[in-house]
Amino acid sequence: MSLFGSYWLLHADTINHPRQKLLHTTWKLNVPPKAITNIKWQPPPPTKLKVNFDGSVIPPSRAAVGFVVRQSDGLPIIATSQNLGHMDILLAEAVALRDGLQLLSHHTSQDLLVEGDSKLFIDALTGRTLVPWRIKRIVYDIITLSAQFHSVFFKHVWREANFLADNFAKLEHSITSPQLWVSSLPLSSTSAFHLDLFRGSCSRGFSL
Q1: Which end of the chain has less Cβ packing within 10 Å, N or C?
Q2: pLDDT higher for 191 or 206?
Q3: The domain 45-198 belongs to what CATH superfamily?
């Protein structure tokens, strides 16, 4: 039977860390972009928070990251962005999630749904592939931080379902100091925010 256009759901993947917390992951097969047509950011259930994070690198290897937490009505709770200087994209993705979870852990211990658009990083984080040596310490930090929340569910999503975090990461390329928004968003993120809440699904390759 062909796997074209299908996806796999993987549950109860255990990752070893100090409290032996059970983490879950969902990942999709690498199917041709034309087969993916129903992409949309989805709000979390009322009992959970959704985390989206992203890294962005522009020549010459200048990295910036974005991190946003939203509740079931789609409204933001916390959003951050920071410029990381010279760094590759995989390391930037890892730093974005670690630093964001560290900040969030001071505000809540609620159940989290965590989404990122780097499949390599999500697979490394959840044990689907070997962790590259340059992010091993950061992955350990992320697993340790995850133990401070009731539960954490890691999921790979397409970039088109991660527009707001992507917007924050790109915003930081023009800013030198870290930014923090609590229950608010900058005007430059309005289009991405409204797109997530009010548009229908889109296909791979859609852009703002």
Answers
A1: N
A2: 191
A3: Ribonuclease H-like superfamily/Ribonuclease H (3.30.420.10)
